[in-house]
Amino acid sequence: KMQPSGRHYVVVRPLFSEDSFAEQHERINRTRKTLRHHLKDYFTCDTNRAKNAARSLLPIIGWIKNYNIKEWLLGDIVSGISTGLVAVLQGLAFSLLASLPPGYGLYTAFFPAIIYFFLGTSRHLSVGAFPILSLMVGAVVTRLVPDGGPPANITGFEGLSMEQQRVLVASSVTFVMGAFQLIMGLLQVGFIVMYLSETLVSGFTTAAAVHILVSQLRFVLGLDFPGVNGPLAIVYTLENVFSDITNTNVADLVTSIVIMALVLIVKEINDRFKSKLPVPIPIEVIVVGIITEYDSKIYNFLIKLHHFIYESPIAPNLEVIKESAVEAFPMAIVGFAVAFSVAKVYSVKHDYTIDGNQELLAFGVSNMFGASFRSFAASTALSRTAIQESTGGKTQIAGVLSAMMVLIVIVAVGFLLEPLPRSVLGALVIVNLKGMLMQFRELPFLWKNDRTDFVTWVVTFVASLFLGLDLGLAVGLGAELFTVVCRTQFPRCSLLANITGTDIYRDRKDYNSIYEPEGVKIFKIPSPIFFANIDFFRDKLVQAVGFSPLKVLKKRNKALRKIRKMLRNGELEISDVRRPSTDTSEDNNSMEGLDQPIDFSGIPIQVNWNTELPANISVPPVNIHSLVLDFSAVSFLDISALKGLKATLKEFLRIEVDVYIVSCDVYIMEKLHQCSFFDDEIKTSIFYPTLHDAMLHILEKHPDHGELEKVFTVICNGLTVN
């Protein structure tokens, strides 16, 4: 039993091995479901399951019936208006990144948000244009419909203007991106985002921010040269900028600098006084309203409005889909990863759950639906979502109201659709990069605390910067997985020792007050053991004990062959002992059988391997009698590791070193039984539930000449064994 005693604990129990523990404590025999049972449960349908499926596919059913009108509606209205104003300006600005006319960004701020209102599980996410996705779409657009030169040879481009061709490309790649997200959602692979660590996403988004910054230089400087995409695009763009910099439009440059300075100052005011301001100052809207020249061409405005509302949907172009599918897949991953990461932050803050698979479905359908109405790839933007949450948004009603704001702005303030100076939009894009560019500040922290994550960040950043965002993401993911493999393949193994006066064991190098019984080594590997690291495990174990058990075993068997030969030849005399038979079938120089258990047959004496042996016989000394393997951090063993472990244990046992395995997971034990791990040499009795149980057993078997009583009497204040 366990009795509390101040800040001490006293446990009185028998010393257990796994065998004795199993005898005294019967384990519940649980039946596990097979794949057939899981499939049967998955496809079985009843009334409750149908209701749950409907709530899962349409999350709005779950929260709309609990909507608190008195407490939430006003906040959602204020949030929707504030977020909508920002969404309009960001939609216009981010269209430049997609190499599309500004008005098409408004489609992205409207159509996907409407669908997400019904299908999304996040209550605070603001759906719409995201600069990195816009840039990735722009790369495909400029590749298939370049600024200078003929477009790609694609059926369906005939009779279309350059603008129409680009819109068709953008909507098609968005459609296939949404299709990828929808398929992943149906396949329930929302967990895939877990492979994109915060470090990788940070390096990737920072590189994307630099790409965006460089791409906007031509608009800020008023230069006229075609866009560049593909590997080293950033280098070629900078080359074009500097070669053409003498043609800078000073008016555009000055306007951009003034706008950026003004917007940054007001955004800083919004951040510092957000607790006192009812809503953030919509500085982007104010700037655009001041700069835009109102043109009262009502007729043109009505025509554009008519097109916006009544323009018929378009079908994606199959040839464009074939040309862009490779780029669309990383876009689907990036769009979902960013949105899910942001949604998770606010779900934790406001104590509700989000479903990754349902989010994939929501964004997949949103993007496919939006693409049919000429919008481009949609996700979220952290700044826009932060505004939606900080201004009082409680549910996606704020999101749908922001989408309505987009429609209202188009109807009531149609002049925004007139061509705006690109330098203004470029300046607004650059200002919105502040948060992503400030991620450079993470590097000193990563360098100081985790060099592996630092390498992942730098590799992802450099690859994304010079190879392009799609290839850069693949390289970054490969680098990240490589670091994971390295950490599991080359873990930090250690020798443990007892902390004096306790039942606690720690790395012997980290403490001074330790106790190490003579002849005992405690080895810990803090990772799974599998095919890739079993050899590393064996090498580290050999280093830890100071000898190779296989070499010792072979040396001993070879020594026995020599002793037998010397006895047969009369070179070694033992009084009162019959000389062994003159069987010469055993070849002393043969290497066969040297790794088998030691056979003392034919030798009339017991060989003590730690004493001086006859002349010309040398065997490496073995200075331990017990080896303890701490498996507390071993989560799984594969077949290759199981075979390697079995061979290693036998090598130690055959040279008279007792091996004990402690804290082994019960499911690993089951696997060992299933795979016939145990035999005449390796028995279940070598397994112990705790390290301290094994150590007490060893010290009972090999008394430590007084140290046992001196040290473990103190331990008994905390642990008494009867």
UniProtKB/TrEMBL annotation:
Give the record's membrane topology.
Multi-pass membrane protein
The cellular location(s) given in this protein's UniProt record come to: Membrane
Q: Where is the STAS domain?
A: 510-698
Presence of keyword Membrane: yes
Source domain of life = Eukaryota
Pfam families (alphabetical): STAS, Sulfate_transp
User: Cellular component terms, GO, for this chain's entry?
Assistant: membrane
**This protein's UniProt keywords:** Membrane, Transmembrane, Transmembrane helix
The membrane-spanning stretches of this chain are 73-98, 104-120, 127-146, 166-187, 199-221, 328-348, 360-377, 397-417, 423-442, 454-479
GO MF terms, alphabetically ordered: secondary active sulfate transmembrane transporter activity
This protein's record includes keyword Transmembrane helix: yes
Residue span of the signal peptide, if any?
none
Query: What PANTHER family does its record include?
Result: SULFATE TRANSPORTER (PTHR11814)
UniProt protein name: Solute carrier family 26 member 3
